[in-house]
Design a protein that fits this description.
It is a single chain. By secondary structure, the chain is mostly helical. It has 2 domains: 3-51, Arc Repressor Mutant, subunit A (Orthogonal Bundle), CATH 1.10.10.60; 64-184, Tetracycline Repressor, domain 2 (Orthogonal Bundle). The protein contains 10 helices and no strands. The chain has helices at residues 3-25, 32-38, 43-49, 53-64, 79-96, 99-110, 117-124, 129-141, 150-170, 179-184. It is elongated, with a radius of gyration of 19 Å. The relative contact order is 0.12.
């Protein structure tokens, strides 16, 4: 392994450790020394990777912005099929990379008042609801989804996904639900 690869591996270990501690203990109750000790490495060495706890949080939130906010739509796929496939991919990726469950929790936590402002604004910039509203409206127009306020339906859809991901982050033995069950709420 090259020195560059070792450095990246250590950087990832810091990020995953911080993610776990921020979710399990809370951002404000986690100290840099706690993260360094859990990695394990010296606190001084950790500062060579991240200048502050806030910078570490910001990097995690940047990673989190790559998630469900990336939802779009292939115009050739019916909205219900698209949402089902999208959730299958999210759940499958999370099963392979369990940190994803914690990322859902962290992104929700960071949106709350009292969190570092730059991280909070970045987390709030992730918008999975608006593209989902468009999908729901298209599905309603095509008779796939039931009538109702598309924004409320999209929020309910994502609240369900968020709840599942949060529950799974606590209960590692949980069997993930069939994505079709979640999409069925819209039908």
């Amino acid at each position: 392994m090259t020195r560059k690869e070792q450095k990246e591996e250590r950087r990832q270990a810091i990020l995953m450790t911080a993610l776990t501690l921020f979710v399990e203990r809370g951002y404000h109750d986690t100290k840099i020394t706690d993260i360094a000790e859990a990695v394990p490495m010296s606190t001084g060495l950790m500062f060579h990777y991240f200048a502050s706890k806030e910078e570490l949080l910001l990097e995690l939130v940047r990673m989190g912005t790559m998630g469900p906010g990336s939802i779009g739509q292939d115009v050739n796929v019916p909205p219900d099929v698209y949402l089902t496939m999208f959730l299958k991919q999210v759940f499958s990726f999370a099963a392979e990379q369990p940190w994803v469950f914690y990322m859902f929790v962290l992104m929700a936590q960071v949106r709350r008042p009292g969190m570092p402002e730059e991280a909070r604004k970045l987390a709030e910039s992730v918008d999975a609801v608006t593209p989902t509203v468009k999908l729901i409206k298209k599905g309603q127009k095509e008779g796939i989804f039931h009538k109702g306020n598309a924004e409320t339906m999209a929020i309910s859809f994502w609240a369900s996904v968020q709840g599942i991901m949060e529950f799974r982050s606590i209960n590692k033995e949980m069997t993930m639900p069939d994505p079709e069950w979640i999409v069925a709420m819209l039908k």
